[in-house]
Amino acid sequence: MTAIKVLIVEDEPLIARNIAMYLRNNDFEVSAIAHDPEEALFQLKRQPPDFVILDINLECERDGIQIAEHINHNLFIPFVFLTSYSDKETLERAKKTNPSGFIVKPFNEQTLYATIEIALSNHAAQANRHVPELTLDKLNKHLLAPLTDREFEVVRLLYAGKTNQQIAAELYIAMNTLKKHINNAYFKLDVGSRTTAVATLRALMVG
Residue 53 CA to chain centroid, in angstroms? Predict the structure, then answer.
């Protein structure tokens, strides 16, 4: 429940498995792996993730760019493109979907993590641009069980698009301790994922 849930859309099983391994090594949760557009759209509907990694070329009639368009029209979640193609026409189509980043094959674990870290931060900054600043007093006015100061610090960093590793490092706490704080905050906000938590926080600050 506490980890960032990532959907991997990649038609090459070996690459998909490597991505999944890299993600789990960095405290992300793989919500699903989709090898074709139909499976990707099904997983997006069945279990909306917090983040999506999209291969552009899926060797099908539809490609990753069309899935990105679906995400933009139906979900408010960040995504990055994974590609070995860099021709101008493909890049222009991809850029029009406003991705949070690009990962060019071949890549390594550090590149993948750094790209996701930056993408989450940029997406949060863009999404929160026109929303009032998150404050503990205003939040607690809407909650039956108030957040503690530490839970608020965790929520504030989560709201800013920080990964679990970044939050734990910034607050100088162990990962297991962080997960307890996140679970407590989710319970008080009555949410079950990062995406719904952030959406709820924005709604409470605007309301």
Answer: 9
Percent pLDDT > 90 in the chain is 82
| 65 phi-psi bin (left φ>0, alpha ψ -120 to 50, beta other) | alpha
Residues ≥6 apart with Cβ < 8 Å to 176: none
Question: Collapsing DSSP states into helix, strand and coil, what is residue 182?
Answer: helix
What's the whole-model pTM score?
0.92
Sheet containing 4-9: order of strands: 28-34, 4-9, 51-55, 79-83, 102-104
C-alpha to C-alpha distance for 153 and 16, rounded to whole angstroms: 34
